[in-house]
Predict the structure.
Amino acid sequence: MAPRTMPHSIRFTREEWSEIRAAAERHDMMPGAFVREAAARAAAEGLGSDSAQLTPELIDLLKNTFRGVHLLAYLKRRELIGQGKEEDFRTAADNARLAQADTLGIEEPDQEK
């Protein structure tokens, strides 16, 4: 005999519910059962504050930071080319790629020539 469940109410935005329905469908589950199982699993495993989940605010910050760095690199490159120092820029860019690869623990990227 299946354990008795108690009804509870929870509200989702339309976007959240759409994502839940799609995820439940991928797992051949009904949305309510999917939410119940996910919530029970999260409660059993704990929701640590050290999770690496990207929040919308953090994603926006990363995008804006990337755009700012890209713009500054572009402007600096133009400046150095105007001064006949394009090789200095290439060296700095190659060093930055190597440092990024080392930080991320990935193989060294191909050098652009």
Summary: The chain has a mean pLDDT of 83. The first helix runs from residue 14 to 26.
